[in-house]
Design brief:
This is HIT family protein. InterPro entries: Histidine_triad_HIT, HIT-like, HIT-like_sf. It comes from Nonomuraea rosea. The chain is of the alpha+beta class and about 140 residues long. It has a single domain, classed as HIT family, subunit A (2-Layer Sandwich), CATH 3.30.428. It contains 3 helices and 5 strands, in the order H-E-E-E-H-E-E-H. It is globular.
Length: about 140
């Protein structure tokens, strides 16, 4: 059921303008007005799901399939030698629109985006306790 206070639901419903570049029965993709790089697109499920905690696995799989198609289309049409997928679930992860979505960002140069984290490499052995904690969660 669309949530009409949600901008992505309004785009899906055709009540908000967008530049749609892909759609199927499960997902829609449109250009992000805030272009991180030329062609930056958002892929959203047609049904409203807030984030990873709420989206059914099957729906997430449909969104990922659409994102793969969109990434191929962007790379081919724009000549992008690389593509990043980006997802944020929750405010602390920088989610700003609370309708599940994937960013598909064409990459043209190593320097057209800055990584959001540093690449500190931890010795594998030092991660054993963390791995155990994660494996034990139910």
């Amino acid at each position: 059921m669309p949530v009409m206070s949600c901008v992505f639901c309004r785009i899906v419903a055709g009540a908000e303008p967008s530049q749609t570049i892909h759609e199927d029965e499960h997902a829609i993709a449109f250009l992000n007005p805030a272009q991180a790089t030329r062609g930056h697109a958002l892929v959203v499920p047609r049904a409203h799901h807030r984030d990873l905690a709420e989206i059914p696995v099957e729906t997430a799989a449909h969104v990922m399939r659409a994102a793969v198609e969109v990434s191929r289309r962007l790379a081919g049409a724009l000549g992008a030698p690389g593509v990043n997928f980006w997802h944020a679930s929750g405010e602390t992860a920088w989610q700003s629109v609370f309708h599940f979505h994937l960013h598909v960002v064409p990459r043209f140069e190593l320097t057209d985006l800055t990584p959001p984290w540093t690449e500190v490499v931890h010795p594998v052995e030092s991660l054993a306790g963390l791995a155990e904690e994660i494996r034990g969660w139910r």
